[in-house]
Amino acid sequence: MDFDRVLEKCGSFGRFQFVILILYGYTNILSSLHYFSQTLITFTPEHWCSHDDLHGLSAESIRSIYSNVTNPSCTLLNGVVNGTGIADEQETCQNWIFERESGYESLTTELKWVCDKSHQPAVGQSFFFVGSVVGTVTFGYLSDRIGRLPAMLMATVAGASGDFMTSFVHTLPWFAFSRFVSGLSTDTMYYLMYILVFEYLSPKRRTFGLNIILAFFYCFGLMTSPWLAIWIGNWRHYLWIASLPALGVLAYPLLICESAQWLLTKKRYDQAVKCLKWVAKFNGRQVEDSVFDEFIKHYREKVIEEQKLTKHEDTFMGMFRTPRLRRFTLTLLLKSVIITLSYDVINRNMEGLGTSPFKLFSFTSINYLPAGCTILLLQNIIGRKGMACGALLVGGIITTVTGFLIAFLDPKENALLLAIMIGLGRYGSTVSYDAEIQYAAEIIPTSVRGRAVSNIHVIGLASSSLSFYVIYLAKFYKPLPSIFISCLMFLGAGLCLTLPETLHKKLPENLADGERFAMNEGCLYFPCFKKHRQSLTETGDKKSDA
Length: 546
What we know:
Elements (H helix, E strand, L loop, with lengths): L2 H8 L4 H21 L1 H5 L5 E3 L9 H7 L10 E6 L2 E5 L7 E3 L8 H5 L7 H27 L2 H19 L5 H12 L4 H13 L2 H30 L2 H9 L16 H6 L3 H14 L6 H21 L13 H26 L8 H8 L3 H41 L6 H29 L5 H16 L2 H6 L7 H17 L14 H6 L10 H19 L1
Antiparallel strand pairs: 1-4, 2-3
Helix pairs in contact: 1-13, 2-9, 2-10, 6-7, 6-8, 6-19, 7-8, 7-9, 7-11, 9-19, 10-16, 10-17, 15-18, 15-19, 15-21, 17-18, 17-21
InterPro entries: MFS, MFS_trans_sf
Subcellular location: Membrane
Membrane topology: Multi-pass membrane protein
């Protein structure tokens, strides 16, 4: 009487799961508002050095005047003669004219962090990723020490506090500090809630429940956030609106309970049974006490057997002790770097493409819906490995084509085509990113899932700090960022072949299970091909019998 069987009796897809999925969706909205807020608040519109002769002129007229001036954003004019600007090489620019998007006041336009101060928003973003590394390690550790639910609540409140603090800053040191605090919850609040939902859903429902909710709610948050920022019109007020809804997570303990699987790994059997009884009551199920007695007996006997076999407590470092788990762990770490860096570069590279970055970001965010549907329709057919490998392969091809289109086409004349290609690129990166989360969570044993997933995310998030440097490669050759990212995605597709398939298999609960998991499986094993071969064999047997 293991956990999956007891969960079936208590209800593995009932009212309780419906509530926890809705809360997971709410968390996805918070996560989308939080993660991409730094992009929206630091958006730098086209700008020129201010001059008395330029006041009252349209943006097109100013561009015409500055047409013969090198670096018009930071070069002061000495005057305008016959519609042409005369550069003043001696004086430095102190004030600017910004072409604001619908009057939106960003951090860079308000604090005038441009030209010789243009590095300051990037410094804040760097501290954001430093905070994300610290937060992922800290809250990942706490999730396996004090529980998934309290760690998730702490992470969400920390991130919201950082965003709220950011809205009051005026100097670089305070901006960097507040972004560090904000970064503490980056991805952490999302993946901890993901693990909690993951452990209360039946294996048959995980792909549907997790990916459809993710696609719809995360897409909703991404598509509405640019319009919300424009409607509010000020980056400080936007951060207020984006951070205050995070207080809603404080009500989660009233509706859901701690992970019963985590409680079992901590030998808190009575609390695990209490959680399962709460699930059964919520779902309107009647489960006899004898079922829970047999359930506890099963896990106590299992612990005794494991203690005889090993003297080591399951830890993340324990995943490096045995050869197969070591290979799986290293592959997951490298794959996280590839997918996270690719996802971040593709999603942030929105400027200079002939369309408003706000509109381009919003409209191309709709890709999350077809991306979620793609995973839903295909993942249970071609398997987790096939989904992860195929998404990276297709994403790499799309990214390569997009890079060369950017190089050889005029962005203003081909804005629609480039927007479509950017949307397809985001689609490929989104499918690979979302598929990787579930795949990694299924390969990693339950006993170290919180710490291992957090550490894998740490490595991925640390690589995100390189995204700004990858985008900067376009200064040397426009398609270079796309070529670099596509090569990484092709490498990631190859790495996926070395991982085991998890579809329709009992997932490992401890390190010993993880080492034995899919022991005799080949690199080119895909469930869809196996079914096809079986159907051909059955057809051949029927013909021979006839």
